[in-house]
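Quick review question:
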């Protein structure tokens, strides 16, 4: 299994560290030719969604990645990555890849509570540490999107098919379980693809 990490801006190196701790190989997507390599999943890191959205478009990565995700490429977006995948951002005119049926609120915790750390339950994993930095939350998950975690009544993790998002940053804690969860999503997807290929 090989995971591509979008490395245009933000906390991509931290994701690479966790993947290597899990023994999963990864490489960085910085430019269009990087898409020529084969990969089984994609991580979109935290950072600034507006900057990453702009760079995705300028570097002509936007359409191929959007199409790959829409066709089932497993993707994991943290924080700004969640905003890039959201169909709607309530307090922003612009949506980006917009492949996931969620409405997100940017910088949703205000200035006072811009950054904080807590622990909460994550469906299918259990209690895990959660670090929030000028984080969004998910106001609404509709369609096939299901809620995986809430903090103070607000949705902070969700999944829709092969798409996984967290408002917090698992790559900034020592706990590897959310990345392991994503790896198991990829594994299942690879098996399904293999089955489809052998059936055809
Ligand atoms: N506030 C950032 C944004 O709007 C997200 C913060 C983060 O990724 N840590 O894109």
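Suggested answer, residue by residue:
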């Amino acid at each position: 299994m090989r995971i591509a990490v979008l490395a245009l801006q933000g906390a991509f190196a931290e994701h690479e560290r966790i993947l290597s701790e899990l023994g999963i190989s990864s490489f960085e997507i910085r430019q269009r030719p990087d898409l020529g390599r084969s990969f089984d999943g994609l991580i979109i890191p935290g950072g600034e969604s507006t900057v990453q959205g702009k760079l995705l478009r300028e570097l002509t990565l936007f359409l191929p990645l959007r199409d790959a995700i829409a066709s089932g490429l497993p993707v994991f977006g943290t924080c700004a990555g969640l905003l890039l995948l959201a169909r709607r951002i309530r307090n922003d005119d612009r949506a980006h890849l917009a492949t996931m049926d969620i409405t997100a609120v940017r910088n949703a915790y205000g200035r006072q509570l811009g950054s904080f750390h807590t622990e909460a339950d994550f469906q299918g994993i259990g209690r895990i540490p959660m670090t929030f930095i000028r984080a969004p939350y998910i106001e609404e998950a509709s369609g096939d999107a299901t809620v995986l975690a809430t903090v103070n009544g607000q949705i902070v993790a969700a999944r829709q098919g092969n798409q996984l998002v967290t408002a917090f940053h698992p790559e900034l804690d020592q706990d590897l379980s959310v990345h392991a969860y994503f790896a198991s999503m990829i594994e299942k997807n690879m098996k399904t693809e293999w089955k489809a290929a052998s059936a055809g």
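Why it works: The mean pLDDT is 95. The chain has five helices and twelve strands.
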